Amino acid sequence: MSKTHVTTTINGEPAEFLAEAGLSLLDALRDEVGLTGTKEGCGSGDCGACSVIVDDRLVCACLVLAVEAEGATIQTIEGVATGDTLHPLQRKFIEHAALQCGFCTPGFLVAAKSLLEKNNNPTETEVRFWLAGNLCRCTGYDKIVRAVMDAAAEMRGA
Question: pTM higher than 0.70 for the full model?
Answer without folding.
Answer: yes
